[in-house]
Amino acid sequence: MINADPQELAKFGELAHRWWDPQGEFRPLHQINPLRLDWIDAQAPLKGRRVADIGCGGGILAESMAARGATVLGIDLSVKPLRVAQLHAMEVGAENLEYREVAAEALAAEQPAGFDVVTCMEMLEHVPSPESVVRACATLVKPGGWVFFSTINRNAKSFLFAIVGAEHLLKLLPKGTHEYARFIRPSELARWAREAGLAVEQFKGMEYNPLTQRYWLSGDTSVNYLVACRRPA
């Protein structure tokens, strides 16, 4: 069984042509990408590293990591976003960047300990078995390497902010982008990471001000958050 939800794949596939429109449905991804990129690069300098981006979608993060000097493999199971990612990379002349339609678990079986850095951003809350993806990421990274996750906490505040606010009131995201039951508490993600053999190094929250339309990283992990993990050397 492939660890993917056909409805989720179809949902993002239908919007694939809008992926690189900074004012479109994926505007939040464009806005938060510099924050994610700088945070990753500060802890695991990307230049010269081999990176796997799990659930890469249309390639916003993957392409920006390649621009920082990493050799990047972006993978996804939604075909249309992958084609968009490949086309955009060709259009801008991106180097050291490859995309493949393959599951994280399959890539882990094929290339264990094959990457210096593994990123899995805004993806865990869209799959049936997120812990399986966490295990795959832990397998993919070399001893001493870094794994970065980002997802959404599960509590009343995150329901109000990420679904009611972002999807219905502010319309930052299309309705139905997220399903509350699939949100993941930091304690759950930390447990899956430790069970997979990773050391949890840092949590960061990501906040948004709808008046200034600005995102920033903070210590508040109550809604959107990022996790940095490391595989012991």
TrEMBL record:
Catalytic activity as recorded in UniProt: a 3-(all-trans-polyprenyl)benzene-1,2-diol + S-adenosyl-L-methionine = a 2-methoxy-6-(all-trans-polyprenyl)phenol + S-adenosyl-L-homocysteine + H(+); a 3-demethylubiquinol + S-adenosyl-L-methionine = a ubiquinol + S-adenosyl-L-homocysteine + H(+)
EC number: 2.1.1.222, 2.1.1.64
Keyword Methyltransferase: yes
InterPro entries for the chain: SAM-dependent_MTases_sf, UbiG_MeTrfase
Family: Belongs to the methyltransferase superfamily. UbiG/COQ3 family.
PANTHER family associated with the record: METHYLTRANSFERASE, UBIQUINONE BIOSYNTHESIS O-METHYLTRANSFERASE, MITOCHONDRIAL
The protein, known as: Ubiquinone biosynthesis O-methyltransferase
UniProt gene name: ubiG
